Amino acid sequence: MNLILQAFKSNATDINVIAALAKAQRVEHIDAGRVPDVQAWRCVDVDNSDETRAAVDAACLSAQVDYAFVDPALRLADFRLVAMDMDSTLITIECIDEIADMQGLKPQVAEITEAAMRGEIEFNESLTRRVALLKGLDASALQRVYDERLQLSPGADNMLKAIQAAGLKTLLVSGGFTFFTDRMKTRLGLDYTHSNTLEVADGKLTGKVVGGIVNADEKRLTVERVCREIGADPSQAIVMGDGANDLKMMGISGLSVAFRAKPVVRAQADVGLNFVGLDGILNLLA
Predict the structure, then answer these.
(1) Theoretical Cys-Cys bridge with 219: which of 89, 223, 249, 272, CB 3.0 to 4.6 Å?
(2) Domain range spanning residue 23?
(3) Domain tally, the chain
């Protein structure tokens, strides 16, 4: 195995200490051209024991360095699909929390959102409760959130351009809302999107969702469906997420990426990006 280390800022001492913990045979700089503003190193032929992984994890967290143990043979060309969660993954905000802020209810809604992302509340229940709090809000609030608050996560543009240039398909699958995923699809040239539809009547939110809820099971089924459509196996999918409702789709992927994720997700993902941007995955794949 190789160990890939990357950070926005680091120093040689930290990298050398981590490489020594991993018993690396040598350390190489990775060309900064693929991921601008990020320093990256490849530690070649490292020890892959649980003890070493635990030591590397602690040292990297202390130094604010992202790490990944990867098969040296792994290539971007091995994959056919990149599937992403939207809120707090592809974008920096939780859209429903920001919509609730227009109603003066952000603290109440955000508390439910956080509990759901940690896996403490079943997702269907959490979404139903949160959407109900939005009843009566003018639907124009959705456009305000999009215009005033929605921002892409660091590295999102660079990551998408690279994977699209390599011929991979893209899927945005979200427990959020079609109002936002539809706009992301057009803006970023995504191939597939799937999310929830907020019910609107007389220009107001009714506090209900139209149709079935895109929960953890539906996210997994969506990844499987898109893979079938493009003639790929789920093992040829890279899946990115941050919350507990992403774990099922991450679990069937060939490479699961926890981005600025909750501890329960980081613990189960193949790769954790806690400090660098989404384009950090490009340094992992030749």
Answers:
(1) 249
(2) 1-73
(3) 1
